[in-house]
Structures are given as structure tokens and as C-alpha cells.
Amino acid sequence: MKRKVSRMNARLYLDDQEVGRVEVKGFDHAWGFGDFVPGDGFDRYARHFGAWSRLLHADHADDRLSDADLAELRKVEYAIDRLHARLFLPDRMEWRPIAELNIDGPLIEWREEYAGVETAGAA
Questions:
Q1: Which domain holds residue 73?
Q2: Which has more confidence, 2 or 17?
Q3: What integer is the mean pLDDT of 56-73?
Q4: Is residue 15 part of a domain?
Q5: Is residue 14 a part of any domain in this protein?
């Protein structure tokens, strides 16, 4: 079920470090999507997401990745999946654990493990 949300801002954390801001645009079942503004902490992770994006958007013969590109994509996706990713929604004082994360330039989409983990005090 797709649903747009009223303006909702979040902070993206990777490996317990704040790496940028997210303007949440909406949800489609467990997937969220929005706009991403990287912060200083994102530099450490940018190469993974840049490589992922480059591989997906490159021109491929027959619109298929070569075996070498598929192997590289698997390696990059594994590195991204190993990150401890979560969103913090300051207006709700709520953490959202992320199971899968894609950042493609200014666009971000994520699949949440579950929603509604409230915290008494957050970063």
C-alpha cells in the first residue's frame, strides 16, 4: 500500500554514526523513500553507494550485467547490507531499523525491519 506522508524529517545513521538527513516522502508497504542530504559522516560510505549506482545505471549489452559486473555488484551490496543502518525520527523520538538501504544520488529508499521502536532519549 503506497502512502505519502506529511513532511517528515529523519536522520540516517550508519554504524551508529549520523551520516545525513532524509526528507521522507512516503512508504510502499515496508519500503520508505525520500530525498537524502549527506552529512560529513557520509564520506566514509559514499564509495559503496556510488559503485552500486554506477553499476546499475551503466549501459549494458542486452540490458544485462556482465558476470564481472554481477560479481562486483554482489560485493558492493554485501558491504552495504553489513552496515548497521537505521533512521531516527526526531519529531516522534523513534528509531526505525533498516534491513536494506539504497542511496542513488539525492534519492534514498529503505526497507524497514519493523517500525515503531521508541526511545526515551536519542542522539
A1: 2-117
A2: 17
A3: 79
A4: yes
A5: yes
In a domain, 26, yes or no: yes
pLDDT digits (tens, 9 = 90+) for 44-57: 999 999 998 888 87
Phi-psi category of residue 67: left, alpha or beta, with phi > 0 → left and psi -120 to 50 → alpha: alpha
**85-89 and 2-14 as β-strands: parallel, antiparallel, unpaired?**
antiparallel
Q: How many domains does the chain have?
A: 1
Residue 41 is assigned to a structural domain of this protein: yes
Q: Which helix (H) or strand (E) holds 1?
A: none
Q: In terms of Cα–Cα distance, which of 116, 109, 107 is closest to 37?
A: 107
In this prediction, residue 67 has a pLDDT band, given cuts at 50, 70 and 90, of confident
Closest residue by Cα to residue 36 from 51, 54, 21: 21
Domain CATH number, residue 67: 2.40.10
Give the pLDDT score at 117: 47
